[in-house]
Design goal:
The complex is a heterodimer of chains A (604) and B (220). Chain A has 604 residues and is mostly helical. Chain A has helices at 25-30, 35-65, 74-77, 89-108, 110-125, 133-152, 175-178, 182-211, 224-255, 280-314, 321-334, 350-378, 387-409, 412-418, 422-452, 458-484, 498-502, 505-536, 594-598; strands at residues 13-15, 267-268, 271-272, 567-569, 577-578, 587-588. Chain B is an all-alpha fold. Classes of the chains: A mainly alpha (604), B mainly alpha (220).
Chain lengths: 604, 220
């Protein structure tokens, strides 16, 4: 075992026993129980998934704008869904469904939590690994199985499911409704397996945070990243079990002949469906009881990363650290009592809708606290405009833009009009999709040197940032206007919808599609930057190149097998001690004691 | 401040790869029954993990319960039926198994390897007997012409019993794992933690079953 030098920054440490490093390729890189390797595995899985999901969104955009144009190779790939390269409307819906599912589950849920959380939670709290390393490995490989099941849905007869990422019955529950068998079954099975993986991971995150913190690291000294990973894990623990239950019921409806979700007297294609008495609304309740917390599962880690990075590059402590923690907690709790706002048009009692609406508005309060504090953190700071900082500021912008439209949608009366229009598409893409993705870019560019010992190309990152930032606003900004028309979602083409053609929707769609093509091009620039930096990026030899404060910057770059080499630093202060009065430097690391920060002369 | 460096030969010997305790302790030896100070921390972590897991499982069954209540309220096609009497016998068996698991744990704490394995054997047999009782219950229902898809009441009956049975099967697997590792020659640093966690999980399975039985009997 190689000896790890204790960083000169560390004032006092606890010795713990070390674990041998696995030698063989399989145990080191495939079935590794090292949280860092597992984190990278999650990130790579998410990266494959995000490019798949992006490709699907491109198909969706192309079908909308040029419904009759053949696309090269597509006819060869999908002879049924796209004969001669021209996509059928059913194929459009299938691509839409798979885009949503891949993005929500395999990207937004895995990368921020499974990827960055796995890699940095143990290091930031001073642990050698997660609480249950083998369980961690099991979580990743279960997630992988889920991804394979989902991809398999493309390959089976009848093709990928087309009931939307929300899988509403009876479309998802009655095979006759979509002339699909196995594809939809694989979709439900994939989601169910994903639930199990996420539950195991959530358990691990919670116990790790509560039990493995270094000496001196109280909960209220934790970096906000750790807080958000912790709260996200609690949300996952409480939400995924419900989706799992719903998935099991749906599978039974499809394959065993039960009637949980399929109503009686349903007629599909002049054929009476042999089910009775079930309720599609029941699925909606179960699904959204999971689905709304899921939104926060996707975005909370992004908030944590953003707070972390804004503070680091503004050289200021997080404005209102405690308020940030409480806001995260409040968002987590409120996230469980607002699922009904997805169902305002389901025929619910207006009184229920009123309650759900009020509770939804309440989430605006902690969200506004967070936004205010992000701006407060930057206010008067000595801002360093590095690429992670740009992505984080981009996150704040997108979070505000996407959040504002949420206030509209949270009103039952306004939602009656906007429901299932492009307004909703614009809203959730900005706040859940793009904002979270920007936080991932921020995290990746921020931690890349620590993880891989090389720098990403700063100039390429900045070009990528500006192209993507402009691109996503060009895509989703005009969609708000489409929603006002109102332009319904999920239409494969609008050429025969007179009122849409008359109001100029077609031109906007063309503009949006070109904006999407620009944005997608930028992502290949990012991929190029990522891969090239891995191989030939400028080496980063320093422990703490960003002059940051948390524990991951007090260990060698890249981190050794056991993180701290068996000597876990003691923590002496909160996570964001920047620009302290009287300090020798403009930052004080968590492992610095007062003597190190203020010099020999200072007392307490 | 000078860089603090310790010589490599001062390192304590590494034992278990991951999952072990994080304090400096010599490796466990036979006859050392998890009474080292570091063991308490590991036990605490495993118990915490089990409690958190119980939270997740509770949400799964809470979702099924709410689905059942909603479906019951909607339905004109709900046909109540009496649960098969064998369920009351298997309930007693499961409660007995909770007692034997508790006994196994106390054998561990008093340091008796043979006693631990004996009571683990008993517990596993009782667990399997309970599952056999559940299968018998399904057969009795099928004999009365009540199948999974017959009506929502029967659907939930099969679903809840099967869901609980699968979770209990996990508990039996844990018993088997502990049985095998206690037999093994290699010292096992987390054995007390594993057994404490298994015992807690097993008692939870017991409580969960009584809840499900109550639901099936009283919410017809």
């Amino acid at each position: 075992m190689t000896e790890v030098q204790v960083s000169p920054e560390v004032a006092g440490y606890t010795e713990v026993h070390r674990h041998p490093e696995p030698k063989s390729f399989i145990w080191k890189y495939i079935f590794s129980i090292d949280h860092k390797v597992i984190g990278i595995q999650y990130l790579l899985l998410a990266m494959v998934a995000v490019f798949v999901g992006m490709g699907l969104s491109l198909l969706v955009r192309l079908r909308l704008v040029w419904p009759a144009e053949p696309i090269p190779l597509l006819g060869w790939l999908f002879p049924v869904g796209a004969p001669d390269g021209v996509m059928t409307p059913e194929f459009y819906l299938a691509m839409l469904t798979m885009h949503g599912t891949v993005m929500v589950f395999m990207v937004l849920t895995t990368a921020p939590q499974g990827g960055f959380g796995n890699y940095f939670l143990p290091i930031q709290i001073g642990a050698a690994d997660m609480a249950f390393p083998r369980l961690n490995m099991l979580s990743f490989w279960t997630t992988f199985v889920s991804f394979v099941l989902l991809m398999a849905a493309f390959l089976v007869e009848g093709g990928a499911p087309m009931s939307g990422w929300t899988g509403y019955p009876p479309l998802s529950a009655v095979p006759e409704a979509t002339v699909q068998g196995l594809g939809q079954d694989l979709w439900v099975a994939s989601i169910a397996v994903f639930c199990i993986a996420s539950l195991l991971a959530a358990l691990n995150f919670i116990v790790t945070t509560l039990d493995l913190r270094a000496k001196g690291l109280t909960m209220m000294r934790m970096p906000l990243t750790c807080w958000t990973w912790f709260v996200t894990a609690i949300l996952g623990l409480l939400a995924f079990g419900v989706l799992l239950a719903a998935g099991v019921l749906l599978l039974m409806d499809r394959n065993v002949g039960t009637s949980f979700f399929v109503p009686g007297g349903l007629v599909v294609s002049d054929k009476q469906i042999d089910h009775s008495g079930g309720s599609p609304i029941l699925w909606q309740h179960l699904f959204w009881f999971f689905g709304h917390p899921e939104v926060y599962i996707a975005i909370l880690p992004g908030m944590g990363v953003t707070s972390h990075i804004l503070s680091t590059f503004a050289r200021k402590t997080v404005f209102g650290y405690k308020a940030m923690v409480y806001a995260v907690g409040a968002i987590g709790i409120l996230g469980f009592v607002v699922w009904g706002h997805h169902m305002f048009v389901s025929g619910m009692s207006p009184y229920s809708a009123f309650v759900f609406s009020i509770l939804t508005m309440c989430i605006g309060v902690p969200s506004a606290i967070k936004t205010f504090n992000w701006i407060g953190t930057m206010w008067g700071g000595k801002i360093r405009f590095t690429s992670p900082m740009l992505y984080s500021i981009g996150f704040v912008s997108l979070f505000v833009s996407g959040g504002i439209s949420g206030i509209f949608l949270g009103q039952p009366t306004i939602d009656l009009f906007f429901h299932d229009t492009y307004f909703v598409v614009a809203h959730f893409h900005l706040i859940m999709g793009v904002a979270a993705i920007f936080a991932m870019f921020a995290g990746l560019t921020f931690w890349f040197p620590k993880m891989f010992g090389r720098w990403m190309d700063e100039r390429l990152s900045k070009i990528h940032f500006w192209m993507t930032f402009v691109g996503v606003y060009a895509i989703f900004g005009p969609m708000h206007y489409l929603g006002l028309l109102p332009h319904p979602r999920r239409y494969a083409e609008i050429t025969s919808v007179d009122y849409l053609m008359a109001t100029g929707a077609e031109g906007l769609h063309t503009f949006i599609t070109w904006a999407a093509i620009l944005t997608i091009t930028a992502q290949f620039l990012f991929l190029f930057n990522f891969v090239r930096s891995l191989i030939r990026g400028a080496p980063c030899k320093e422990d703490n190149p960003w002059e940051a404060t948390t524990l991951e910057w007090a260990i060698p770059t890249p981190p050794p097998h056991d993180n701290f080499g068996g000597k876990v630093p003691h923590v002496h202060r909160g996570a964001y001690d920047f620009s302290l009065k009287g300090a020798k430097r403009d930052f004080a690391m968590q492992c610095n004691d007062d003597k190190a920060v203020f010099g020999e002369a200072s007392g307490d | 401040m000078t860089p603090a460096t310790l010589a490599a030969n001062n390192q304590p010997p590494a034992t278990e790869a991951g999952g072990g305790d994080f304090l400096t302790e010599p490796p466990v030896t036979e006859g050392d029954w998890g009474k080292r100070p570091s063991d308490d921390r590991v036990v605490q972590r495993y118990l915490l993990g089990t409690w958190v897991g119980i939270g997740g499982i509770l949400m799964f069954f809470a979702a099924l319960t709410s689905a059942m209540i909603v479906r019951h309220g909607l339905a004109s096609d709900w046909e109540p039926f009496a649960v098969p009497p064998v369920l009351y016998v298997s309930t007693l068996v499961l409660m007995l198994s909770s007692a034997t698991v508790a006994k196994a744990r106390s054998e561990l704490l008093s340091g008796s390897l043979a006693g631990l394995r004996r009571w683990i054997n008993f517990s596993a047999c009782l667990g399997l007997a309970f599952l056999a009782g559940q299968i018998l219950g399904w057969q009795q229902l099928a004999g009365r012409g009540i199948y999974v898809a017959s009506n929502p009441a029967s659907s939930f009956y099969y679903l809840l019993t099967a869901g609980h049975g699968l979770h209990l099967l996990g508990g039996i697997a844990a018993l088997g794992y502990i049985w095998a590792r206690v037999r093994g020659i290699r010292p096992w640093p987390t054995r007390r933690a594993a057994i404490e966690a298994m015992a807690l999980y097993w008692h939870f399975m017991d409580v969960l079953w009584i809840y499900i039985l109550g639901l099936l009997v009283f919410w017809r």
